[in-house]
Amino acid sequence: MESEVQRSVSLRANRKGGNYRSHNNHSSPSNSKDVEGGGGGLFSSGKLSSDYAMKIIWKKGFIRLVLVAGILWMLLILIVLLFHIWSCQSSYLFFSAICNKESKVYTILNTWGFVPQQHRCPIPVISNPDRIVIPEGRTHDQIIKNLSYVMEDKPVKDGSQPSPLFGGHQSWKQREKSFKPSSSMKVHCGFMHNGGADMDPVDVKYVEKCRFVVASGIFDGYDVPHQPSNISDRSKELFCFLIVVDEISLDFIKENVTVLEDHNGGRWVGIWRLILLKHSPYDEPRRNGKVPKILTHRLFPQAQYSIWIDGKMELIVDPLQILERYLWRGKNTFAIAQHKHHRSIYEEADANKRRKRYARPLIDLHMKIYYYEGMEPWSPKKSTVSDVPEGAIIIREHTATSNLFSCLWFNEVNLFTPRDQLSFGYVVYRLGGAFKFFMFPNCEYNSLFVLHPHTREHSSKVEWVKSLSEFKGNGSSMKESRGGLGLWTPYPADLKSVVLPKVVRTSKAG
Fold first, then answer.
1. Which residue intervals define the domain TOD1/MUCI70 glycosyltransferase-like in the entry (predicted)?
2. What are the CB-based long-range contacts (under 8 Å, 24+) for 351-357?
């Protein structure tokens, strides 16, 4: 009886430890002894039961450890995110390195994914525009002392291209030389004699008095002027609000909003003075829009400061506050926002092709030229926050260096595709450290304005082109006759072997 009880206890112990015996095996005295005593050698059932139990305990403990570590990591990320949001919205100077997009701390946090991507965020402006102190004099240039412009266009010898062109027939050698800053420079910068974009004499006289300018533009009737809000009386007296239009847009605006005419013949829509440009220089309306946008200093040569906003935007921040925040506070002469989705021009080019912003093969050719000339995709190793801006707002002091950059940027838009975001980072790269600018957070950019939809969407046949062969025969009419000629002029090197860097799409929206 005692032996049966011992066998029962032993069997339960084996089952508990996981060492099950076959029902066909009958327990012998020797087997009972092994179970009861736990001895008998390496393969004894007692040792197997003990090892198995330890493995179960270790495995469960490891799983708990992994789960606890994962929870702690998620809590750490949450704490960092909340701390970042709180610190950037607080007024403590200690946290400026965390919130400054140009700082190493910010770059590391952003690379690790710890920086929340906000659509809008508060802009740290001085609350009362009347208290803003305007700097005296002008910012002195360290390198460029004298900047002048080519004014007469030299036509090509074979007569294959119209002349004169607004942007001129810039040769590859002239283009290369323009990227080497020197104390005295003469560069192409649009506005060739008899090249188009002519301003009415009454407007020429009016803008001569404009030292501070808020400028905008409407071409091909895509928009109507949107009145800015939150403008102080001081800024209304100080700034000229100028909106550049072509003849099609002027007619469209007259049909849709009230246009008043003063005793000098000036046209007004609210606070905006309409500036008519006659004889559009390009076939492509988007390329025409780059003239006032990039060459603001050429249209309004007396202006010392300018703020450009696209025609579809309603400005909601006082312009004096903008100049103080983005230029004067940091002693900058050029400020522009970072693109919301892209940092590499090759990623931006890929998005342009997918969204049919211009002919795909011509965008590829444009990028091949840049890649051949040494323009690498953006990486954290670069000194710039990004190579791709949001170009809808540009804030400038019109210094010689700032003007040179604008000229060279426009020349690239004139030579290649009208997508100015593809050229911005390239010109920065070519000028090296000679051009300094402030690229501010995209969330601040979105807090400067209210975005209105276009009255209609732009569309042209060239945007649907997928192959260069489509430009042959009847498709030759899709070629622009006065812009983008660098895409059809033989490049002084073999680009056939150039393979563009692979694009990794970092954003679904991009």
1. 147-454
2. 351/510, 352/417, 352/419, 352/422, 356/463, 356/464, 357/419, 357/463
Kindly report the pTM of this predicted structure: 0.78
CA 388 vs CA 232, 237, 342, 385: distances in Å: 32, 34, 6, 9
d(CA 300, CA 302): 6
Please give the pLDDT value at position 69: 82
Tell me the three state secondary structure of residue 307: strand
- Residue 217 pairs in a beta bridge with 244
Contact 175, 190 (CB under 8 A): no
Q: Strand, helix or coil at 194?
A: coil
The predicted pLDDT at position 81 comes to 64
Phi, psi of 362 (to 5 degrees): -75, -35
Joined together, the tokens standing for residue 230 give 């939150």
Amino acid at 200: D
Instruction: Give 155's pLDDT tier (boundaries 50, 70, 90).
Output: confident
The answer to whether 213 and 300 have CB atoms below 8 angstroms apart is: yes
Q: Specify whether the CB–CB gap between 215 and 467 falls below 8 A.
A: no
* Contact in structure between 190 and 414 (CB atoms under 8 Å): yes
The count of C-alpha atoms lying within 13 angstroms of the C-alpha of 386, restricted to the half-sphere facing its C-beta, is: 27
Instruction: Please say whether the beta carbons of 262 and 256 come within 8 A.
Output: no
Ramachandran class of 196: left when φ > 0, alpha when ψ lies in -120 to 50, beta otherwise: left
Name residue, tokens 């002029």: 489
Tokens, residue 451: 């975005």
